Amino acid sequence: MDMSIDQLVVMSQAWIPVLLQYSGKLTLAIFTLLIGWWLISKLTAKVSALMDGRKVDRALSSFIGSLASIVLKVLLIISVASMIGVETTSFIAVIGAAGLAIGLALQGSLANFAGGVLIMLFRPFKAGDFIEAQGVSGSVDYIQIFHTVLRTGDNKVVIVPNGTLSNGIITNHSRQNTRQVLYDVKLDYDADLAKAREVLLELSKDARVHQEPAPVVVVSSLGETSINLSLRMWTAAGDYWPVIFMLNESVRDRLRAEGVELAQPPRMMQVVQQGKAG
Asked: Which entry of 8, 41, 240, 265 is 20 to 30 Å from 191 by CA?
């Protein structure tokens, strides 16, 4: 049955006060949503630009910018909904409970994520550095949000979780441009120390060894069966191992050629007497 004009008039008289009552709130809510959305976009863009200016990793700055944008927009929508009279208490409680459940389920991943953020912000190492951490050593291939990938000297790939990596001891062999070589030699007590020092200092004149500060040879300790000399010199970080290998190959032969004997490890002889047959 078609509605009569009188019925339409009655319905309009009932709805008009409601529309007038809520139109102001609805207009304000829409205005707040538009302005808030625009401000959030500007704020996240500023944060991303600030992190880019501080050389923060691109992946991290993009992730943080997206995460901040989502969180702020969700809070904005909840605020706008409450402005027009929508009850948001239960909605907030549901979001909180869901966040707690997700956090408990992903606590390991969240710890790795937090570790990745710390590594990318404070940069204890960067891609290409040679590091020792968590019982492994290798060159850093790349750093991701949840883990860091190392490549060992024999070309193995090791994936280290960022959570444990950021909370442990990290030795970065590439942070400094130079490294000190400490090369110890054990000599017999009857050896000529002056001649041994002369030979070691002669070897330190290698082109890869820095002459400033000058290399030195010191008696580092007196052992039970040997006098321990220590050759101390500086090289570029990239020349550290080649210089060590050069010394391993040359020291023994050069010392022997000059009549300087290396200490021999002590040996124990056991004499077993066999009883005569009865």
From this structure: 240
